[in-house]
Prior knowledge:
Keywords: Iron, Iron-sulfur, Metal-binding, S-adenosyl-L-methionine. By secondary structure, this protein is an alpha/beta fold. The protein has helices at about 45-55, 75-85, 105-110, 130-140, 165-175, 175-180, 195-205, 225-230, 270, 275-285, 295-305; strands at about 5, 10, 15-20, 60, 65, 95, 115-120, 145-150, 150-155, 185, 190, 215, 250, 290-295.
Amino acid sequence: MSYELVDGRVVTPEGCELNVVRHxxxxxxxxxxxxxxxRRSVVDPDVVRAxxxxxxxxxxxxxxxxxxxxxxxxxxxxxxxxxIRASGLAPRILVSTNGVLLPRMGADFWSLIDExxxxxxxxxxxxxDDLAHIRRRAERHGVALTVAYYSHFRHSYSERGTEDSRxxxxxxxxxQIAHVWRCHTVYEGHFFRCPQSVFLPRVIGRPNDPxxxxxxxxxRPDMAGRLLAYLTSPRPLLACRNCLGSVGKRLPHHQLPRxxxxxxxxxxxxxxLDREFLAQLATRPDMDDGxxxxxxxxxxxxxxxxx
Length: 307
Ligand code: SF4
């Protein structure tokens, strides 16, 4: 399924992402949003209101995904959820969280969302009591709950990048984030094809202009056409020179001290690349990346044995 232009709006078959904070209460090695390197940083609800008011005139998404960083760290999350609902950008609101703060969230939070995705990481598991409490809350409020158990991550980026333009093209065309999951992101008056192109330049300083990969949202008659052209462009983004897309080497998930987050990434793209998975994705773009298991018992075995 692809993008369509319907009644002057681009319709995407997936969602639109909104990173409400950059920072996180965990420090996952190779976090694809680079959250461990960011100090406390939250979006202003007034900025969200203005962005979504404009964007919703040109885009229709299946859902708005609220994430970060850890989104439950935003003290004004509830007004933001109300703003999203009122914008009409999408019929559903989904929150993606590590779940650590979820047991503290009240009925007002649960009544504002449609779906919640909890990512569970080794060493940061929720207790059985907390999970049972979350399941009861979700059921009571008619919220669809998904629990994803992560045993692995893939290297998300390279500090040194690559000069091999052909390789950059391959990383871009096999990128599940941009082309399969379509994690398109609205951020401070701009629309980005992926969150990595928002965060990578702000950490590694390349390209020099951190807005270079985004499309500025403007009130102009050809905006929907510009948005469609942006979303379907075959040209890699500038950030793809340092990003590993979906094809970084797989590593057992672990936490790192924040000061050490960038150290394992101080290598060239070629050294952090899983060439076998790249070749597989070239023929099967939606192939499982081997990082998540649905069954907690299988997850425990994988984590214990580092399979
Ligand atoms: S920067 Fe490029 S490779 Fe990385 S997620 Fe975005 S489109 Fe994919």
